[in-house]
Amino acid sequence: MRVFMKAAGSWWVTASFALGAAVLYIAYSFGLPVEASPYEKWSNALLHTPWGIGFCLAVIAQLAILTVRVAWERVRGAAATPSAVRAMDSVAEFVPESREALGEWLVRLGFEPVELGGGGEIIARSGAHSYLPGAVLRLGFIVFLGASIASAHLREQAEVLAHPGEAASILGHEFGVLEVSIGLPREFMRVGESETFSIERASASLEAAGGRRFEVSNGYPTMVAGLAVRVTHAGLRQPLLISRGPEAEKYLPGRAEWAEIVADLEILPPGRAHELDLAGGGALSVALEPERVIRKGLLTGSLYDLESPRYRITLAGHEGVGGGEGEDVVIGPGESGAVGDIKISLGERSHYVKLLAVRDPALLALYAGSVILVLGLVLMIARFFWYERTLCVAFEGDRAIVGYSEEFYKKWGALKFRRWMNDAPGR
Amino acid sequence: MAEAFQAAFRESIEFALIMAVVVGYLWARPASTWARSGGLVFALGALTGFAVGFGASYTQPVAVVLQPGQDWSGARYALEVAVFYLGLLFVMVHAPSMRAWSLAVLFLSGVALTLFDARSLGLFVRGVGEMKESAGGAAWMALLGVVLGIAPLALLAPLIGRLPLEKSLTLPGVLIFIGAFRMAFGGVGDADEGSVLAALEHGIQGFMVGAVGHMRQLLLFPAGEFVRVPLEGLAEFLSGDRAAMTLLVLFVVTPPVYFLIDLFSRPEPDVLGIGQAAERRLRLAFFQREIVFRSAPALAAFITILVALHAMTAVMNPLSEPVPIPVRESVEDPGVIRIALKDRIGDFSDRKLRKYVYYYGDRQVIFLTLLKPDGTVGLALDECEICKPADWNTKAQGYAQRGEDLVCKYCMTPVPASAVNKPGGCNPIPIPFRMGEGEVVVALEDLIRTYLEAKKLEGKGMHL
Lengths: 427, 464
Fold this sequence. Notes:
The complex is a heterodimer of chains A (427) and B (464).
Chain A: H1 2-8, H2 11-29, H3 39-48, H4 50-76, H5 82-86, E1 90-94, H6 99-108, E2 114-116, E3 121-126, H7 132-154, E4 156-162, E5 167-170, E6 173-182, E7 187-191, E8 202-207, E9 213-217, E10 222-224, E11 227-244, H8 246-251, E12 258-265, E13 273-277, E14 283-288, E15 292-296, E16 299-305, E17 311-316, E18 328-331, E19 336-339, E20 342-346, E21 350-359, H9 363-380, E22 389-396, E23 399-406, H10 410-422
Antiparallel strand pairs in A: 1-23, 2-3, 3-22, 4-21, 5-6, 6-8, 7-16, 8-9, 10-11, 11-12, 11-20, 11-21, 13-14, 14-17, 15-16, 17-18, 19-20, 22-23
Chain B: H1 2-28, H2 33-56, H3 60-65, H4 70-92, H5 102-132, H6 135-162, H7 165-168, H8 171-185, H9 196-218, H10 232-238, H11 241-264, H12 277-316, E1 325-326, E2 336-340, E3 342-343, E4 346-347, E5 354-360, E6 363-371, E7 377-384, E8 399-402, E9 405-408, E10 414-415, E11 428-430, E12 434-436, E13 439-443, H13 444-459
Parallel strand pairs in B: 1-5
Antiparallel strand pairs in B: 2-13, 3-4, 5-6, 6-7, 7-11, 8-9, 9-10, 12-13
Helix pairs in contact in B: 1-2, 1-5, 1-6, 1-8, 2-5, 4-8, 4-11, 5-6, 8-11, 8-12, 9-11, 11-12
């Protein structure tokens, strides 16, 4: 068992697994065009194929064994037999004045000597628990990788649009959408073709069965009835009443139509147009109309009022009589206008949000793994100055064999040891 | 035919240098049958690789397989990186003593070292031959190039033998040097191969983009179109080209730097027990000299990598400098120079640097213009207030453009485009001007005055 633990839990096995994963990644990149990344193929192979899952489980097991082995060796401590001491980085042998003087000398050096065994062997250590940052890092990786495998197979995911006052069905759960709010800036300046538009906050109030209310936002996910939900997208929701004009009725009896559409307009960022298909053929193109156009030098900026937006509605591909293709009208919510033979009346504007909902038993483990992983990475900084230092003294008759090892910075450890030896009692 | 000779000559010099290092290393080992024959085996492998790669590209059925392709380059890159990191591995395990089986490894290494470049060279020479309608002539010229490229190695062999190779060449050091050298200079420049460093950076960025995207999906923070997502800035940084470049630098400097740290952190010999001070000093000096000798290949690798990285970033972000366009006084409006914002020469909205030259007597007044990020025009002399290159270095005078910013060609200080028209520092010396209808108008008087003032400054020693 000990031999197995030592072999399976060695750093070389860890490095071999890492190398294996890297070689696999490189292998997947062969045959791909330059611009393609093999990441998707690689991660799919690792998380979805039987051998890939086997590989990941082997990595998890190896890291766990390695962590246990390192912790066990550190907790158990070093042996202070003459042969073990002589195998340390720096060794000196001398006849001490007395064992008490030797102990006092070690205390003066900053060690808390611990005497062991009948032979009076001394083991003094510092930084014995410096394995903890690495252990935390590996634990985080183990939890995250394990959760990733579970998530790849157990996750159910759906995206739904939520409209205020309506019901939303998400992965078998019914929710009432009480309110939708998006933090649109009051105005937005679009310069040239660049887009820096962003919405800092978008949220929806949901009511689950039993009357429990939840606030879902674009921040961290909210747990709602076993689902993790967050807002991923938002937009303007605009009711439109569209009707054909009298000319259509005059020349083509029976073609007079009307329709009431409540459109989730994809017109954000400002400058983008949304196509609304008309039942009788053709389409309306809706875009936000800039409040002002500003020119400075060679650049042109369009200033949009997003608090009281106005839309430019253009008729496209219209088959009806009376022409009008390419005609447009600029109207705001609550106003009416006409393009060609089509009359348009706008209702009051509201907002919609897109909800991403996930049912995933491994989600909490994924978050926990990420947090532990990041914590481990931060703690690893401590390893620059938190490392194990061991000083052992074994005796052969009156002769003391003093050995010293440092986990890192061995050169300076050896120099330090030589300096200490100058003051050793009895050298 | 000169192209075939040139390419073969260049590749052979590169090969000869690597050969010198490998044979030098093997020759410097303690005399034993395998160590001495190792050099010959390696050379034999290299010759085999060359014969297979170069010769096979002339064999029609095989040539089809050898055609340029992404995978050939990928295999070459993977091999070069593997050799480089094998050096690091041997530093970590403190290079095992090589035994007879290493003859096979040496043979295969020799094959791999020449196969890829010989393939590219063969295809290139064959192409040159077909173009010039003299396949045989091109092949002979290439072979002549190979012989002449390797010849210096043979001539310099006695000199190489005098170098302290046994002290400076260790297996990890040799591997790291060869890997770095191949990464910097590998591939036949005129053929299809690109830079392994650029490919590595691309690969690292591809991995990071994939990994960050995967993490975002897993943690429910997929990139939104415009709705903000927590930790968005971090995700963008990690999948950006700066992070990829940082990781690339870490990746390629790790083997030589680890080698040097391992070497220089070795404890000095314990000399306390030695009675004579001279003997103590001798021991320490010997130890330090050993370390310096041993560090040579890794230091050479480190410098090679730095140069290669610099060359790569220079290629990816080139300096561009336009040729000055001569301008004259306006015929309709004497006393001013008019520069159209949009004409047959180009459009200012491309944000490219433009230079103009006005002939003032026998002197050239060069000034520059460009469109600044705020949409306004910048106009200044093509001269820095601080830097004055020496007379033999007049090509370093003025500014070039990298991305949207300017760079002082003398001190290579980047100057933001927004700083044009602002005096001070390394900024170009501003010239007063006004905007006309679709044009920039510079009063000749202002231009000449600014130019003469700059010359006066120069005379007073304001310039470096």
